[in-house]
Amino acid sequence: MLAAPASATNIGNEGCTPGYWKNHSDNWEEYTTASLLTNNFELGRFDAKWGGKTLEDAPSFKGGTGLDGAFQIMMRAPVAASLNAAHEGLGYPLRRFDDPGNMKATINAALASGSRSQMLKLAKMYDGYNNLGCPLN
Fold this sequence. Notes:
By secondary structure, the protein is an all-alpha fold. The chain has helices at residues 18-23, 37-40, 47-50, 66-86, 103-113, 116-130. The two termini are 26 Å apart. The chain is globular.
């Protein structure tokens, strides 16, 4: 049984990196390490190859050239952003459901775009937020 969604009302200037979440899955709130990417995002063209990967796998994606590389880069940052936004102990600048554009909808739109530059632009934005400084142990 999944926990109820976190209200995550603590807005501020904190964020933990994909590497933090990769090594501290015990701090995950709302999400589970076994949750499939395809159950959390609309992967579209990437579903056949990456849909069986879990949220725990995403922080280890290496990236690379082409759309496949952009997908890996993009999923690393948004998975960490989703974990940051869900955590009650973090003052992450974005919320998952009420920020302008809605994080999940924004991620899904970038995936559906088929545009490497759009995916990388979104990953760069989230990466900036994810590197604000992590107060969690």
